[in-house]
UniProtKB/TrEMBL annotation:
Residues 346-507 form the NAA35-like TPR repeats domain. It is found in: Cytoplasm. It comes from the Eukaryota. Signal peptide: none annotated. It comes from Somion occarium. Coiled coil: none annotated. Residues 38-196 form the NAA35-like N-terminal domain. InterPro entries: NAA35-like_N, Naa35_N, TPR_NAA35. This is Mak10-domain-containing protein. The keyword rRNA processing does not apply. Keywords: Cytoplasm. The keyword Ligase does not apply. Belongs to the MAK10 family.
Amino acid sequence: MSSAMDIDVEDMFDMPGGNAFEDVTELFEQAASDMAPGDVLLSEGFTLFDSMGAFEIGEPRMDSGMIVETTSRPTFDPLTPLLPEEVCWIIDRGFACEMEWHSGSTLSQTVYTLLYVHHLSNIDPDFLLQVSMNEDPHRPLGLLTIVLRAAVMGMLKCCDLAWREMSQNNVQDTEDWQSEKCEVSLLEGVPVEYVVQKLEAACSWLRSSSIPIPQRDALIDRLLLRKALLELFRLDLSQHRDKLRPFLVIALNELHKVQHTTISTPPPDSPALLAIDPSITRRLPNFIPIRVVALPSQEKVWQTISELLDGLNELDHLLDATSLSAWETIGSLRNWSPQRTLQPPYIRSRILTCFFDNTKIAHQYPQTWLIDRFWLETFGMSWDQISSLLHREPEDPQLSIERIELHTLKMVIRYVKAFWFNPPRRRRCLMKLQLDYSSLHRALKLMTSKTIFEDPGDQAIAKAIPLVPTFYQLRIALDIILSGFQQELYAQDERPIAYYYAAQVLELYLAFSAEVSLVVPDDNSAISEMEFWHDYYQGLQLICTALYGLTAKNLHHSKERLSVNFKRRYKWLFTKTFPNNVEVKVLPLPDLDVFFSDAEMNWDSTHLANTFKEAKNYLVPLTETDVNDLWAPAQAKDRIDFVRALISVCDNLQDAAQSDVNRDSAGGTGGLMRERLRWDPTVHPWFPCLKQDT
């Protein structure tokens, strides 16, 4: 190249085709001198569309075959003898590749970077010649052909079983996980039992070998961990539910052993380091940008496997649950608690598969069980009692008992499943569910309004029945609003509107709750649940009200701009898709005129401190609730722990408000609390914490 381009060819790395380039900039400038900016020259029959189809900016496969000096590697020989600790390290990094795939990266960036995946046939002992008498006793060939081969086969088969589970559309491809196999086998046609036998044979070979005991035990522990994972992944819980707990215990024990075995990274000249090639993607057919993914540390890998086993343990508890509230409680707290991470896609998919397999609930209950539990745990009456009360010959086929049963079944299944979607997907699903609950409310209201009840008690019950779907509708609306804080969607001026609307939704819920509680039977846990949720939401409503008053000062945008932003942010409130094309609002819209007028109120620090204190007065007694009075007592303990976290929020905000009161009484400036608010979902998903004083 010429000096005009200010690039020194001698300093450049080697390029395909050599370095003998000539600068043609002047030639192109001269040829295009008569063209105006934006003009395009096209040959006859070749359009701009054709040119863009031939070359895509950022096309990941354009340079996939390019190998430069910095990425050149020695030729990989899968039969290069290795020390036991080197094989152990490779197996560990195989776990790292697998767990990184479970975290959302592609197979080509993770599992396929372990080159032994592509050379299983080269290390198959059935196709190798007899071992030479000159074999290094410290590097026996069996470490490759028996031990490492079994470990790699086990990893691939685990990936195959996980791939099959996640491809059932319970989790979203490209959102939660990557399904692209790049035309590389995951041993789809190999029976699981065959791989299990290979792992057992590898353990037997190690026990009879002359390998030093520490390295031998480390290798056996890893093979047994792989075998336990393989057994868990292939377990059909609809037929072998009793085997889940024993395999979990085995896997946890083996993981504990592995975590306490330190395997150092091989030295730079070790051939084991060549087993991982992050650039293998350039040789595979793929459709995503080629990017090298840094594999996690081994400590992080074991932690990820521990979380995976924890998810299967959670599934075990769910399958033992006898109430719908257990599924709702575990699912909601998994989304709300900052201490709990989002489960791996494989676990979420498996939980959803077990919850409803198109025939039964939790592999044991008929579909009618779900409808019955929905009404019993919310209203205190079984569906048989309610349907017998409402049974009649309908004038409208849409109002038949059978139609309502089918609608309720589909609605509750979607509602429970939403708890195990990724957060954005879950939020969108809840928005759509608003319509389902509104439709059920409308159908029940029409049915009860056209039924004559001679008994006043039956008439009161019938009046309260349509409010049950409204309860869920309001809970869902609250979840949608508050999840915006957890996903950090709200700008500064949107936060007070969110808290304002959340407080209005809670106020409506409390009013309906007081009405329904009058007819709920007190001979089951439904009334205890209703009292718990009433006090919980009363405290939550006070917190939202106080934070609205705290954050509504000094809005940066005009009323008109905020009104437009509201319609865009809360577009799910303006849906018109309802039966008979009748426009019915999903929920009452907040009065923004009242919002702006209330925003001008003087929320002094004393008022704020008292409001947070009043919220605590509702929440603190909940921590002393007898969980045996609630549905799903085992899961109710976690619910109470979440209430304690809300009390901690109240304590911090009350103390800060009281500090402002003290500053004002001492002649200080006050108002510092508002400046110290910081929204951090890792501390609390919905409410702010306070910046530390500097």
